[in-house]
Specification:
The complex is a heterodimer of chains A (142) and B (272).
Chain A: E1 9-13, H1 17-29, E2 33-37, H2 40-49, E3 56-60, H3 68-77, E4 86-90, H4 95-101, E5 106-109, H5 114-126
Parallel strand pairs in A: 1-2, 1-3, 3-4, 4-5
Chain B: H1 2-64, H2 70-101, E1 109-113, H3 114-124, H4 126-131, E2 136-139, E3 145-149, H5 150-167, E4 173-179, E5 183-189, H6 197-200, H7 222-232, E6 236-242, E7 246-254, H8 263-271
Parallel strand pairs in B: 2-4
Antiparallel strand pairs in B: 1-3, 4-5, 5-7, 6-7
Helix pairs in contact in B: 1-2, 3-5, 5-7, 7-8
Classes of the chains: A alpha/beta (142), B alpha+beta (272).
Chain lengths: 142, 272
Amino acid sequence: MTDQGCDKTILIVEDDADLRNALAEVLEDGDYKPLRAENGVAALEELRTAQQPPCVILLDVMMPIMDGRTFRAVQQRDPALSGIPVIVLSAHADAQAAAAQMDAQGYLTKPVDLGALMDVVERFCARPPAPAGPRPASPDRS
Amino acid sequence: MIAAAVARAGLEEQVRVAERERIAERGRATEAQEALQQRDEFISVAAHELRTPLTALQLKLQSLERTSNPDRRIERLGGAVRQTERLSRLIERLLDVSRIAQGRVEMALERFDLSALVRQVADDFRDPSLESRAPLQLDVPERVEGCWDRLRLEQVLVNLLSNAVKYGAGKPIVVSLEADDHRVRLKVADRGIGIAPDDVDRIFGRFQRAAPIRNYGGLGLGLYITRYIVEAHRGSIAVESELEHGSTFVVELPRWSIKPVDEHETAARAQA
């Protein structure tokens, strides 16, 4: 059963157009509603104008204009957005460390496995909306 | 007394020589250290660059198992093939560096219309340029024939346009081509993030980039390979740039009667 608060909406923040579209395609296959942004600035615009907050944000780290770390810092400072969980997408070996530094709720290492991706989004779309405010002390790593 | 002075002078000279050798040795050790660090960084960046299309490829292939819609399956397979082509281009680029270093890049000169090639490459960039919201404007004569290596010049155009799209901050990109009887001048101008004056000279070097790696991926090889190809055609490449106002890359090439530059000569310059 999914939480109707986010209505299976997922925000993909990834600068590589091919990967962004591939992620959106497979999420649509699973009846999710992907929103797309090519950098942190576009993601903030998307979040502030979205009709419904997404269940989870899939966040690339290395992006032009505004990278994932800066986006995450801005998101955490905004009470209206800080409750939305973030899963870091990273191609680097230190993805886990990057996710911990960004106080993210989990991470997926590129190349991303489809099963792992669907498990993660299912978990976040199925849980009740997180309250806005301080982040949990012990992030739940995927 | 004279003998003692001579002996002292000899000794002092030996000390100076030893000191010079010690400094040179320290310099060589530092250079080797820097080269190792540069290589390790490059391997890390290359792994990152390869994993991005690999993820798109993997998702498309794995999703085939979950969809029975024939149209969707065909579309996904087409997308998967495009990702393998992208991976091939990345690997080719890595191999080009090794070929350049060894002077093993062969030039295949032929007569063709450069205007048509510019239009074709610009057309291929229509989608990427729209993705980054950077419209492409072309100012190209009807026909500019000459004698060059078609595939290598296509590579030059792709490299310059990729950079313009990547660093162009979504603003218009202008590609222009001018020609007289002897030379052609190709310009690719963006109005993006630009290059700091201190970085302008080094961006044509191997593994070099002016933009921070945390924001912009890439192997740091595009302009290095571009300069090599242009110089192998006995041409030149230069850039005019201002931070936050964009960059204009200008390539000048002779039009006819090109005898390719000796491979080893160009490779030696590329190493410099």
